[in-house]
Write a structure and sequence with these properties.
This protein is an alpha+beta fold and 193 residues long. It has a single domain, classed as M1 Pyruvate Kinase, Domain 3, CATH 2.40.33. The chain is built from four helices and 13 strands. Strand 3 and strand 4 form a beta hairpin.
Length: 193
């Protein structure tokens, strides 16, 4: 019996992006029509690499800056959840560029809560493994505030539980706008200590 089960749930890639550098005051993201992914992620992307320095998200495991496996190569978000964040902030839309998003998917319900270790498998076989839910941070709030004054301050609260997931490349390949991705989930019960 496989440890991962294919679901009948799929979504469509509606946006792709690349963050070329890290800036303390804003997020800059280039829109793409396709993305060639290797085991290290997307070449030229600030989050690419087989390893990365540890950050605040894993501070109870490692001192900041410790070299660890990079399971945060990509930021994957839901179009429907972006719409919910925009409505909470009183904006017509949230541009994925403001968040430093890598992939925006339409059609997978409750996307930010898909289980860790789920797979998103695209046409052609390129496969992303979900690490965990992404937490809202201050950089998108600052970027939104710069673009839409008075709306960025509430971002962290509005995006709580809706910020998507981080992921890493399990199988190399190409993602394209319009590709269908199918959700595969771990075949196990929820943890019950």
């Amino acid at each position: 019996m496989p440890a991962l089960k294919k679901t009948d749930i799929s979504g469509t890639i509606v946006w792709l992006g690349r963050v070329p550098h890290r800036d303390a005051d804003e997020i800059e993201t280039d829109g793409l029509t396709e993305m060639t992914l290797t085991f290290a992620g997307l070449e030229g992307e600030v989050h690419a690499g087989l390893t990365r320095p540890s950050c605040s998200r894993v501070s109870t495991q490692y001192p900041r800056g410790t070299e660890i496996r990079n399971v945060r190569q990509l930021s994957v978000v839901s179009e429907e959840e972006l719409d919910r964040i925009a409505a909470s902030l009183g904006l017509p839309q949230i541009d994925p560029r403001w968040l430093g998003a890598s992939v925006v998917i339409r059609g997978i319900p409750d996307f930010s809560h898909v289980p860790p270790s789920s797979r998103l498998q695209a046409e052609g076989g390129c496969t992303l493994t979900v690490d965990m839910q992404n937490r809202p941070c201050h950089l998108p709030a600052m970027t939104i505030e710069a673009v839409a004054e008075g709306h960025g301050k509430g971002f962290k609260q509005a995006a709580k539980g809706l910020r998507g997931v981080t992921a890493w490349v399990e199988r190399e390949g190409i993602l394209r706008l319009g590709h269908t991705v199918t959700l595969h989930v771990p075949d196990q019960r929820a943890w019950a200590p």
